[in-house]
Amino acid sequence: MDDANPLGLLFEFHGHRCWASTVGMRAGAAALQALGVEPSGGKSLHAVVEIGDHHGAMCFGDGIQLSTQCTFGKGNLEKSRRGKLAVTLIETAADRRVRVAYRPTLQPKIQASAFMRKRAAGVPASDIPDAEQWELVRLIWDAPQREILSVGPVEPAAWNAIEEVVRFAVCPGCGELVAEPYLRTVRGDQRCIDCAGYPA
Ligand SMILES: [Zn+2]
Ligand SMILES: [Zn+2]
After folding, report:
1. What was the pLDDT predicted at 198?
2. 117: helix, coil or strand?
3. 34 and 64, same domain (yes or no)
4. Is the confidence at residue 89, as pLDDT, over 70?
5. What's the gap in Å between 181 CA and the centre of ligand 2?
6. Average pLDDT over the chain, rounded to whole?
7. Ligand 1 centre and the CA of 49: distance in Å?
8. What pTM, to 2 d.p., does this model score?
9. How far apart (Å, rounded) are the C-alpha atoms in residues 129 and 131?
10. Which residues are in the CB-under-5-Å shell of ion ligand 2?
11. Nearest ligand by distance to the CA of 125
């Protein structure tokens, strides 16, 4: 990561400036520091984020992705869907993990900010003036770590890697490539879920 301008990278990746993605960046960095590891483009780390679906502050997940390099595409990022801004980072080879959770000490200031009042009124984040976006971001970015994050103990965590299925086949119905576990049998033919007409 470009240490000189981590926030610039974050907002380029995330698409807008916001407090929750900034919390994610700091939580990811705190988890890496607690484990004493670097972000990894491989699979030596696995992140479980506690955000859910269709709620505010899910942006937290993008800060985690950028800071830890655990991503949806590599399959080493998952959601446990608790509606919380927290992450458990697992060092898979060492069977160790740490949980980092957001401490809402700044929440009254965040809720009272011009940015959040406009967001609550339905203004898209990208339509809010830069200065008001930065005000909120700096609040999180400049806060002492202990004020905004609780870093749990590093604990043992048995890690059972699930083997990836590498085999694919071309569906005779649509001609598209399908990973083998997703093929379904229809009258002796191996077809994709769409062409088979049933999921399981
Ligand atoms: Zn955001
Ligand atoms: Zn098909």
Report:
1. 84
2. helix
3. yes
4. yes
5. 14
6. 93
7. 15
8. 0.89
9. 6
10. 171, 173-174, 192, 195
11. 1
Query: SS3 string of 35-94?
Result: HCCCCCCCCCEEEEECCCCCCCCCCHHHHHHHHHCCCCCCCCEEECCCCCCEEEEEECCC
Is 104 inside any structural domain?
yes
- Rounded distance between C-alpha atoms, residue 50 and residue 80, angstroms: 5
How far does residue 175's CA lie from ligand 2's centre (Å)?
Answer: 6
Classify residue 191: in a domain, yes or no.
yes
What separation in Å is there between the alpha carbon of 192 and the centre of ligand 2?
A: 4
CA of 104 to the centre of ligand 1 (A): 17
Ligand nearest to C-alpha 63: 1
Separation CA 47–CA 39 (nearest Å):
11
**Which tokens belong to 148?**
């905004």
Output the pLDDT for position 152: 97
Ligand index nearest the alpha carbon of residue 61: 1
Say yes or no: 57 and 144 in one domain.
yes
Domain of residue 200 covers 165-200
Residues 142 and 122 grouped into a single domain: yes
Whether residue 63 is found in the same domain as residue 128: yes
